[in-house]
Amino acid sequence: MEIKKILVSQPKPTDPKSAYYRIAERYGVELVFRPFIKVEGLSAKEFRQQKINILDYSAIIFTAKGAINHFFRLCEDLRITMPETMKYFCTTEQIAYYLQHFITYRKRKVFKGTNGKLDGLTAYFQRHNGERFLQIVSDVHKEEDSKILDDLGLQHSKAIMYRTVSNDFKPDEPRDYDGMLFFSPAGIDSLLKNYPDIHERKVFIGTLGAPAAKAVIKAGLELSFQAPTPETPSMTSALELFLKNNQSKTAGGEQ
User: Fold this and answer.
1) pLDDT of 125 above 80
2) 22 sits in which H/E element
3) Which pLDDT belongs to residue 44?
4) Which helix (H) or strand (E) holds 132?
């Protein structure tokens, strides 16, 4: 299989030392970074339909920087000012520090998780189990997070403040890809919408994460490779192994 052009369904890396650039040079392929999905915020009117009063809660849970952006945007639209007593629980240190763009960091109570997941905040949740927690999420979120909070006996609710939608292709956008890389089920949904003839195309598909891999199979498409695995813990390592094996087959005369 001759591979010249690969679509990576995520934003272009800002780090010039990204493994993607090294792979492109080593294997002589063109990598095009073009997200299949995008995030858009709910309007104040849409949020009000959830009948959630933010000030009824004493603690906010953030699992992404984007959640912070949409939370404070909606607070501004709704003319809500966060009280000095509000506590913030963030799953990573980076997310916690991002709060500095919106609050006076030293004067607030901000708690950082240990592993990037909600259960990494367990010790803090137990210490502050008298708070009323509001978790800021998108329309596509992990239901198991609610179970973690339930098991800890916490008072909590979820507030949807943004959603994932298809980042539709324009009629004049190129579609001559030999392979595509996906990172979420939503990306596969967008693929089916933008490429109605994808089942007839000779395109390899690689995925990161079990949910994306399951979405490919459910859609009736062939999954060429997935990560993470013990041998390929990242998307770039999986892509490089695939290209290396393909190169060997091509050199050996296999079509």
Assistant:
1) yes
2) helix 19-27
3) 96
4) strand 132-138
* Residue 132, beta-bridge partner list: 155
* DSSP type of residue 129: T
- Backbone torsions φ then ψ of 136, nearest 5 degrees: -90, 120
Residue 238: what residue type?
A
Mean pLDDT of the chain: 92
Does pTM top 0.90 for this prediction? no
Residue 220: left if φ>0, alpha if ψ -120 to 50, beta else—which one? left
Sketch out the chain's domains with CATH numbers: 5-36+172-251 (3.40.50.10090), 40-164 (3.40.50.10090)
Tokens of 248: 């060997």
Distance CA 183, CA 191 (A): 12
* Matching residue, tokens 């990576």: 8
CA-only gyration radius of the chain, Å = 21
Spatial neighbors of 244 by CB under 8 A, at least 6 apart, are: 27
Query: What phi and psi, each to the nearest 5 degrees, are found at residue 9?
Result: -85, 55
